[in-house]
């Protein structure tokens, strides 16, 4: 499917979704958010996709929600349309793993979008920020909640109250990103990670995703119980038999998602 604001390529079981509004540093407008919801849903349903990579350009993953689009909107407009909410939540319904590959600016809604992915690989040029305070608003796609869980209250308050940007090294130090790579290698590294994930059993990968995400929603005791139930349940799959047999037979497993 052809999109106005995205470029989607599927190769070797990885769907690469590229945000593509270069004139506006990939600012997220309603069109892009609805196309992204559509592209993510399609990738999640597509049997030829086992992992998704979300990226932007060298200069910007996304510089935030489109300020031109928001500037004249009223409370009635944004509340009435539930601005961005249902389209951004489409990302949270995706059951396949999503890797964010971030170079350049990931600000405001851009940072929030990256945080909604399962993990972030950052180029050494990446800059993260929640500068909404400079516009007289607060984050609206979960930034005050997710950034706080990732980096702790003090740094999250600092980011949201001062609107300062965090570079890639700081983002790695405080656990916002899983790794930092030279900008020229970003896509190669992200695709390599996605390709490694796509070799696993998709059932198991989806179970990992559910279990880790559960840790944000529940107590430790309940989360551990949820994990244990998933662990036990996976013994009902052929992929568990195959994975363990392959180890014992010293060969590469052939998972069939069964
Ligand atoms: C609309 C944007 C934009 C944005 C950049 N542009 N960010 N347009 N919305 N968020 C446009 C600029 O207007 C300009 O267009 C072009 O992209 C290039 O940007 P410049 O500012 O000229 O580039 P530069 O000097 O390199 O500065 C880069 C920057 C700056 C530091 C990233 O653009 C910036 O501060 N942008 C806004 C960041 C921000 O406040 N984000 C949070 C948004 S609120 P023209 O036409 O002039 O060339 C948000 C809320 C989320 O995200 C919640 C939603 C529910």
Automatic annotation (TrEMBL):
Source lineage: Bacteria, Pseudomonadati, Pseudomonadota, Alphaproteobacteria, Rhodobacterales
Protein keywords: Fatty acid metabolism, Lipid metabolism, Lyase
GO biological process, one term: fatty acid beta-oxidation
Domain of life the protein comes from: Bacteria
Matches recorded under InterPro entries: ClpP/crotonase-like_dom_sf, Enoyl-CoA_hyd/isom_CS, Enoyl-CoA_hydra/iso, Enoyl-CoA_hydra_C
Catalytic activity field: a (3S)-3-hydroxyacyl-CoA = a (2E)-enoyl-CoA + H2O; a 4-saturated-(3S)-3-hydroxyacyl-CoA = a (3E)-enoyl-CoA + H2O
Function: Could possibly oxidize fatty acids using specific components.
Protein name (record): enoyl-CoA hydratase
Protein family membership: Belongs to the enoyl-CoA hydratase/isomerase family.
Coiled-coil zones: none
Annotated CDD domains: crotonase-like (cd06558)
Naturally occurring in which organism (per UniProt): Cereibacter sphaeroides
């Amino acid at each position: 499917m052809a999109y106005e604001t995205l470029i989607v390529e599927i190769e070797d079981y990885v769907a690469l979704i590229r945000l593509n509004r270069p004139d506006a540093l990939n600012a997220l407008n309603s069109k892009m958010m609805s196309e992204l919801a559509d592209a993510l849903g399609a990738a999640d349903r597509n049997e030829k996709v086992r992992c998704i990579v979300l990226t932007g350009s060298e200069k910007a993953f996304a510089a935030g929600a489109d300020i031109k689009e928001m500037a004249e909107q009223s409370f009635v407009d944004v509340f009435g349309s539930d601005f961005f909410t249902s389209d951004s939540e489409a990302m949270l319904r995706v059951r396949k793993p999503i890797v964010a590959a971030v170079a350049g600016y990931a600000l405001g809604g851009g940072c929030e979008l990256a945080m909604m992915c399962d993990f972030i690989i950052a180029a050494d040029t990446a800059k993260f920020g929640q500068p909404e305070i400079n516009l007289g608003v607060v984050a609206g796609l979960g930034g005050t909640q997710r950034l706080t869980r990732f980096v702790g209250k003090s740094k999250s308050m600092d980011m949201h109250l001062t609107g300062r940007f965090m570079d890639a090294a700081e983002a790695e130090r405080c656990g916002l990103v899983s790794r930092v790579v030279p900008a020229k290698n970003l896509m190669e590294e992200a695709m390599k990670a996605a390709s490694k994930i796509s070799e696993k059993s998709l059932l198991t990968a989806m179970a990992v995703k559910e279990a880790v995400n559960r840790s944000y929603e529940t107590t430790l005791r309940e989360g551990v119980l949820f994990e244990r139930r998933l662990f036990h349940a996976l013994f009902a799959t052929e992929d568990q038999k195959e994975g363990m047999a392959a180890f014992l037979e010293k060969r590469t497993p052939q998972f069939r998602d069964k």
